[in-house]
Amino acid sequence: MGDRKISIAIDGPAGAGKSTIAKIISKKLGILYLDTGAMYRAVALKAINENIDTLDKEKLSKLVENIDIEIVYANDEQKIFLDGKDVSSLIRTPEVSIGASNVATIPDVRIKMVELQRKIASENSVVMDGRDIGSYVLPDAEVKIFLNADVRERAKRRYLEEKAKNTKDITFEEVLKDIEYRDKNDSSRSFAPLTKALDAIEVDTTNMSVDEVVNTILGHVKNYG
């Protein structure tokens, strides 16, 4: 990208392939990748560890007042530190996934996370993925992409990911139910819901390979440059 700074926003529902695609794009372009979802997962993990309901607005508002979330890049990989501890692997459980979707509905939590996300984007060229990056977090991003896919295809992808990790026995139906819950939760929240920005380019990944999606997005980035 040379000396020209660029922000690439990739939004979409759970299982659409945002993180996978964003990581590849960041490596190909040599710019930072920021997994915003991991930040909400860290908040959810802290709430769960402190026995706080992830829908308790009052307690969560207080929780994030002094929360310490640090993003560290090492060996081309993003690590999430919560209160000084590497929790990168601990935030990838189904329980934390649901919790992250819940805490993301709390305005004070989102304001705190967005503040950090915008600061990082103001200092670096970034690829940022989430639910409302193009519509709310980075409304002036140079390239905005909205990834989508059939809900069963998204559930299938997430199911295969979980099976590969061997974290616990889980059924496809459980994953599908989780995805449907998160879709409804993310789209219906009153503050910064999951939505496609008016100037975003929608890419349906249902029948596309990872390479096809990456090349499509890189084509739009090239058009910008």
CATH superfamily: P-loop containing nucleotide triphosphate hydrolases
Which whole number gives the mean pLDDT? 91
Beta-strand content: 15-25%
Overall shape: globular
Q: What's the β-strand tally?
A: 8
Number of helices: 9
Supply the CATH class: Alpha Beta
The separation of the N and C termini measures: 8 Å
Helical coverage, percent range: 40-55%
**Which class of secondary structure composition applies to the elements?**
alpha/beta
Order of helices and strands: EHEHHEEEHHEHEHHEH
CATH A-level architecture: 3-Layer(aba) Sandwich
**Biggest β-sheet strands, sense, barrel:** 5 strands, parallel
Please tell me the total number of domains: 1
> Uncertain runs with pLDDT below 50, 5 residues or more?
none
Can you walk through the features of this model?
Keywords: ATP-binding, Cytoplasm, Kinase, Nucleotide-binding, Transferase. It holds the Pfam family Cytidylate_kin. By secondary structure, the protein is of the alpha/beta class. It has one domain: Rossmann fold (3-Layer(aba) Sandwich). The chain is 50% helix and 17% strand. The protein has helices at 18-29, 36-49, 57-63, 94-103, 107-123, 133-137, 151-165, 172-188, 210-224; strands spanning 7-11, 32-35, 69-74, 77-82, 85-86, 126-130, 143-148, 201-204. Strands 2-6-1-7-8 form a 5-stranded parallel sheet, sandwiched between helices. A 3-stranded antiparallel sheet has the order 3-4-5, covered by helices on one side. The chain starts with 6 loop residues before the first strand and ends with a helix.
